[in-house]
Amino acid sequence: MRLLHTSDWHLGRNFHRVSLLDAQREFLRHLLATVEEERADAVLVAGDVYDRAVPPLAAVSLFDEALHGLAELGVPTVMIAGNHDSARRLGVGSGLMRHAGVHLRTDPAGCGTPVLFSDEHGDVACYGLPYLEPALVSAELGAGSSSHTDVLSAAMSRVRADLDARPPGTRSVVLAHAFVHGGESSDSERDITVGGVASVPASVFDGVDYAALGHLHGCQTVNERVRYSGSPLAYSFSEAAHRKSMWLVDLDEAGGVEARRIDCPVPRPLARLRGSLEELLDDPAHTEHEEAWVEATLTDAARPHAPMARLSRRFPHIVSLVFDPEPVAEAPAPASYARRLRGRSDQEIAEDFVGHVRTGREADSRERRMLGEALAAARAEEHAAEAPQEQAAPRAGQDEAGPGVRAEARA
Hints:
- It is a single chain.
- The chain has helices spanning about 20-35, 55-75, 85-90, 95-100, 135-140, 150-165, 275-280, 305-315, 335-340, 345-355, 365-410; strands at about 1-5, 15, 20, 40-45, 75-80, 100-105, 115-120, 120-130, 170-175, 180, 200, 210-215, 220-225, 225-230, 245-250, 255-265, 270-275, 295-300, 320-325.
- It contains eleven helices and 19 strands.
- The chain is an alpha/beta fold.
- The strands form five sheets. The chain has a six-stranded mixed β-sheet.
- Helix 1 packs parallel to helix 2 (about 55-75), helix 5 runs parallel beside helix 6 and helix 10 packs antiparallel against helix 11 (about 365-410).
- GO terms for molecular function: exonuclease activity.
């Protein structure tokens, strides 16, 4: 039995505000072509079909295209809901789709009811475990607690109970959407720690021939029978080193597993560059990244002028800019504020402040002149405000003395 294992399509997701819809369409065409070329007997989609519970219409339309393509090939597909999906929305029409060979598993109550495939060696029971939110399904599944491990273990108990009732030699496959111990995460996965510890042991899947996992976006092998296909596209720069692929799994007559990776199309490579602005603009080593999606981390001590515009002239597909100045040598403990100001002019204090807020870039000659002019204007204004008071005091004294002087004169 040959199975094509994929997951985490995240239809409708953007990459730093860049639409990935065309890239996702290209992947789905590649998936259909792979099914034909490799003569897959079934397709397994381990959750996160959509990126949001309420996906945009363009993503729904793309999913509809994929369903029609899979149905036309006549190759059965088992698909589960992930933590990004709305199980109810994804599951609409599942009864009708089943007749077209597309089996949507979105209801936790159906964990122990498999889709049955057959080949010359007998049956393969394929169980779909949608994402199980512990707080919502622990009571329904009879789990010991509201933890991911207990909830998934309760679901697997139903799988084993059904499998035990089947003829000896029945092979088994489980689809699940979870974080398994030993898996390597990336920045683009939504946290599922609500409801208890996020990760579960791989031993939860003991007793089945193959566990097709979704949720983590890197293709990886937990053990020979427990694997993540990863996402078909990169959804964050933390995935820059990922090799995006699907697993083509051959299940022999005894349940033995042989798996190989099928690479997915790469719409545009990712590059994480670090250095000063001038280094990124001039270094010939970065020539190979000029057509990549770029995340640039600038290490300049002071933020340069218009860095995004300048970088985009060399890297037209730059989508992310990060500032992370290189640390400077630790300065000695500063003196008190009064001591630091002692003996310094207003001009010097103002210039020091400019250098401080700009992380070491001191005021240039034009700025020093502007500061001097501003200080001179402030002094002139202060002097003008005080001058009338100084002049008014003698007049007041004269007014007070005036009548007395005149009285003395009359006397």
